[in-house]
Amino acid sequence: ARKVILDVDTGTDDAVAIMFAALHPDLDLLGVTTVNGNVPLENTTDNTLRVLDWIGCPGIPVHPGVPRPIVRRGFPGGRHFEQDDDHDPHGTALPIPAPRIAAQDTGAVEYLVETLRATAEQITLVAVGPLSNVATALAIDPSLAGAVEQLVVMGGGHAVANVTASAEFNIWADPEAASVVLSAGFDPLTLVTLDATHQALVPQTTCDALEGLGTPAGTAAARFISRRIAAYEQMAVAGNAAPVHDVVCTAYLVEPEVISTRSFPVEVETASPLTVGRTVIDTRPDSKSERNAHVALHADAARLNELLLTTFARDTAS
Ligand code: BDR
Ligand code: CA
Fold it and tell me: Which Pfam families does the UniProt record give (predicted)?
């Protein structure tokens, strides 16, 4: 099985990605690192522990990470959707019981540096929150970029944005970190954008089928995704369906055809107040800039929905 470390800001869609990585037989989830993002660090860590406990995987270590962006101040995490609960696809605490397990004493950055540096095994790093942990690990040891087998990032967008008119949340929430990570030399670096995740919609019919599986993961996924569908409906983004961004990344690991990618030069805007956090994806065929990322702008919804159903039929909790 492919060895994976997941970096998350859990979050309903992160939660689905964690369950997928923990339960799919072709993936070996070595550990999970948490970061400030959808909710403050304390809550992303608590939510991550909830998910692993709920699906019967209490042994997968959770390492709490960086509580704020690497440069900017004033972003406390969470509630970037400045609406009431119905408009928030995450909430603060996930709607499953509080965890009976605890986080590790070793922080995320130390864990990433030690694990990626020490191991002769190839590890895929999947980062589906703001990139504060990964950028901090690189500041300690820049050679980490060459040590991982592949970096997969959920972030950015070309024709689609969410948190501002220009930017996607994960990149916007720590743009300097994103800039560091995208230019660090990870090869391959796969960037799964909003353009792709907004094509991989999960409809209410899949939620009903997930619920019908009767497994802990099926039940939880149905609950989390239904919440997202309700929120996205309010925002008039999708009809009776929602993107579940982060799970597109973990699904891609076992079935690459879930997305289609092309190599483009990508840079992150860090200066302009209007467009801060924008991923500038240079799609010009004759661009002379270095093609630093395999960018997913398309995804296959049918394949993703099918994979969710087969993976969450598994029940390690019993
Ligand atoms: C990304 O931002 C986070 O809120 C989600 O969990 C996802 O990783 C979508 O923009
Ligand atoms: Ca996330």
Answer: IU_nuc_hydro
Q: Give distance in angstroms: CA of 196 to centre of ligand 1.
A: 13
Alpha carbon separation from 279 to 7, 156, 160, 161, 170 (Å, rounded): 20, 5, 11, 10, 11
259-298 per-position pLDDT tens digit: 999 999 999 999 999 999 999 999 999 999 999 999 999 9
Of 96, 85, 9, residue with least CA distance to 45: 9
Tell me the CA–centroid distance for residue 18 and ligand 2, in Å: 10
ipTM of predicted assembly, 2 dp = 0.99
Which pair of structure tokens corresponds to residue 309?
A: 């159903």
* Annotation marks residue 9 as catalytic: yes
Q: Are 73 and 234 in contact (CB under 8 A)?
A: no
Handedness of CA 77, 43, 17, 210 (dihedral sign): negative
Q: Which residues line ligand 1 (CB under 6 A)?
A: 9, 11, 13-14, 37-38, 128-129, 154, 162, 168-170, 245-246
* Integer angstrom CA distances of residue 309 from 22, 24, 58, 232: 15, 11, 22, 22
Torsions phi, psi for 29 (to 5 deg): -80, 105
Identify which ligand lies nearest to the alpha carbon of 244. 1
- Which ligand is nearest to the Cα of residue 162, counting in written order? 1
Prediction pTM value: 0.95
Burial class (CB within 10 angstroms; exposed 0-12, middle 13-18, buried 19+) of 92 = middle
Ligand 2 (ion): which residues have CB within 5 A? 9, 11, 14, 128-129, 246
Which of 7, 9, 53, 88 does the annotation list as catalytic?
9
